[in-house]
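Collaboration report, partner site 2.

Our partner group contributed sequences for two proteins of shared interest, and the home lab folded both. The records are reproduced in the order in which they were received, starting with the first partner submission.
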Amino acid sequence: MNVEEQVLARLKPSPKDEALIQGIVERLIKTVMNSEAASKCEFEPYLVGSIAKNTHLKDPDADLFLLFNPDMPREELEKHGLAIGKESITGREHYAEHPYIKGEFEGLKADIVPAYKILDPSQKMTAVDRTPFHTEYVKANLAPELQDHVRLLKAFMKGIGIYSAEARVLGFSGYLCEILIIKYGGFQKLLAETHAWKKGMRLEIGQATDKKFHEPLTVIDPVDAGRNVASAVSTDSLATFIAAAKDYLVSEKIQFFFPNSVEILSHEAIMEMLTSRGDMLAITMPKPDIIDDILYPQLKKFEKNACQMLSHSSFQVMDSSSDVIGDEVVILIELENASLPVSALHKGPPTWTTDNADNFLAKWNESENALSAPFVRDGAWHVFVKRKYTSALVMLSTGLSSLDMGKDLNKLKDSVKIMAQMPDSPLLNQMFSEYLDRRMPWLR
C-alpha cells in the first residue's frame, strides 16, 4: 500500500465502525426526542458535521442541531436547548455565540446545539443557523469519490498540527477542508496549488463578493458570501500548511499524518541545552475550570502582555511559548539577558525644540536618577540614567499586579509563580522539551 492507502486503512471507519456510529447516532436522536424536556417544545433534530457528510475519521463527533421556529425568543431557545442537551448526554455547557452542550453519548463525542430553522442563510439569527446549509452544500457538491480525499486532508492537517478552528489551534476547520477539496478536486491537487499561495490569499468558491477581509487566508463561504470560512487560520498555520504541502509532494512520508512525538528530555539535558542560549523565565499557574476556547485567548493575551512589559523595560524577548499541560498553565519567555546594567542611555529631544529641550534639561539636571550630565549626540540631548529594574524576574513579578491576563486568569494572580531557576519537574520538562525541539512535526 502507498502512504495514502495506509492512512485511510488506519483512520477511515470500517463498515463495522460505520454501523456502530450510525446506530449510536440513531439512538441519540431517539433519546433527544423522547426526553422530558423535548415534550415541552417543538423542534426538529438535524445531524450536521462530518458524520452527516460522510467525511469523518474514526472516533468522530456527533453534531446534533435542534432547529427551533424563528418565532421563538432567544432566551426560550437557549433554555429548551440546554435542558434537552443536559438530559440527553453526559456533558457540560460550552459557549460560542450562545450556549450548547458538549459531552458524550454511548462513548461517542456529541454536541447538542440549539439553533433556528431558517429558510435562507441571509436570515441567520445566530451564528450557527447557517450550519445546516453547510452540511447540505457539501452533501450536494462533494462527489463520493472525493470523500476519502477530505479524510486525507483532515489527517494531514492533524498530523502537522493545524487542524481545527478552535482558539487552541487557530487552524483549518473540517468544513474548510471539505470546500477546499470541492474546489480543487482532490488531496494532491490541492497541495500542488499551494505553491502559489501566500499571506493574503483569497479564494472565492461560490457567490462573488466585494467584501474585504483582512485575515491571512480568505475563503469565501459558498453558503454565505459575507463570511470568511478561513477567518480562524493564523499566519503560522497558513505558512505551516504551505511548507508541509511542498515537502509532501517531494517525499510522501507517513510522518505527515502520524508524526513522531517530541522526546521528553531529562532536566539535566534541558539545562545543558539552555546554557548556550539566552536566559529563561517560566510562568506557571493552575488551569481555571473554563473551556479551551475561553482559556486559550486569555493565555495568549497573558503571554503577549508579559512579553510587552519586559520589552518596554528594555529586556530583549527572543521567543516565547504558552500551553496548558495537565492542570497547569505554562508560559516560557526566552530573553537575550535576564539582567541588565544599572545604567541606560536615554534619548531626549533635538536641541532646537526649545520648550521640549528646556524641559528635558530641567528634569535631568536635577534628577537623582541621572548618572551623567545631559550631552548632545546626533543633534539630540542624551543622558545616562538609572534603570528602574535590572532584573527581568523582579520587574515581571512587581508588574504582575497591573498586567492584564484576561478575565478569568486575572482572578488567579495570587497563584502565579515566576521562576528564573528551573526546578526538575515533569511539567516543565515536557514544556521545555517541546519548546527546544523546533523541528516541524513531519521531520521529527
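Second partner submission, folded after the first:
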Amino acid sequence: MRVKKLELENFRNYERETFSFTEGLNVLTGKNAQGKTNCAEAVFYLCTGASLRIRHDRQLIRTGAEFARVRAETETRYGNVSLEARVFETRRELYLNGNRVARAVDFLGNMRSVFFSPGELRLIQDGPDERRRFLNLSISQTSREYCTALLRYSRILEQRNRLLKERDASLILETLPVWDDQLAAYAARIVAKRREYLAELSPRAAEAHAFLTDGAETLSLAPDRTFHGGEEEIASRLKREFEESRERDLRLGFTTVGPHRDDIRILLDGADARGFSSQGQARTAALSMKLAEVEIFKLLSGEAPVLILDDVMSELDLSRRKKLLSRIAGVQCILTCTHAERVLYGAECNKIRIRAGKIVGAERP
C-alpha cells in the first residue's frame, strides 16, 4: 500500500503543488513553517477523512482561497485507487476513483495511514478523549462496521442528551428507555471491537517498546473496564448501567456512562504512564503504540499502511533513531525533518526540499 502521487491545491500554505513518492522512505526537508507537516497532514486526511491538527475542515483552505483540493493516486494489493477531497467553507466533497462518495464511511479505509508527531505525547499525558480518538481512528480504518456503529451511537447519544435537558419529566421517563435500548446495542459493538483490538495491540506495543528501549522498560495496554461475553451480554450490562445512571444523568443533563467515557490504561513497568512517565518515556510509549498500529494494519489488511513521521527524529536519541529506521524498512514512510543529513545516516530515500509551500528540490534514490 503506497501513495504514488499527491496533488495539493489551495491546501494550507500550498497554492498548487504535486509530490511524487517512492515505495520506501520519503523525506520532506526544509526549515520550520515551510509546509512539510501540511503535506504529511494531507496524506493522513485522505486516508482517514480527519486531521489530527484542526477541528474544522475550513481551516485547511489557504488564506484568501474559496476551496481546498487534495488528490492522491495510490496503489494497493487490489489495484490502483484515486482519492480526492474538496473542502469548502461549509461542506466537503469526497471522491473515490472519480466518483463522488455520499457517505464518509465508504471513503474511509481505502488507504490506511499511521501518523506520529511530537504532539502524540497527548496520547499518554492528556485525558481519555485523546486515547478514545486514537482507538476510533485506528479501528475505523479497518472496520466499517465499527465506524458505522460509532456514528450511530454518537447520533443517539446526542438525542439522549438533548432529552435529558427537557423539563417535561413524563416525556423523559417515557422516551428514555427507547433511546437506552438503541444506545446499548451500538455501544456493545463498540466495546467488543475495542476489546478485540486492544488484545492485538497490547503485545505488539510491548514488543516494539522493548525493542526501542533495549528491554529496559515494559509497556502494557488494557481497557479501563473489563467486559465479558459476546455483544448481547455486553449490551445487557450497558443497558443496566444506563438505567442505573438515569437519576445522575437527569441531574447533570448528559449521559455519564458508556464507551464515550471509557479509557485505555497505559502502564510503564506497572505504573500509570500518565502520572509517572517522563517526556522521553511518554514519547517512546506513544511511538511504540503507533508502531504496533502498523503491525495491526498489516495483520488485518494484508499490507502495511503509509507511515507518517512528522518531526520525530529530533526528539529521539541516536540509538532510537537508528532503531526506528531499521524498524520501518519495507513500509512506505513520509518523514519530515529540518536537517535530513543529521537523522538519516546514509539511508536511501526520496528527498524533497520544501520552501514556502513549494518544492524547490528533489533527490530520488
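Feedback sent to the partner group on the second submission included the following. The chain has a mean pLDDT of 93. The chain has twelve helices and 15 strands.
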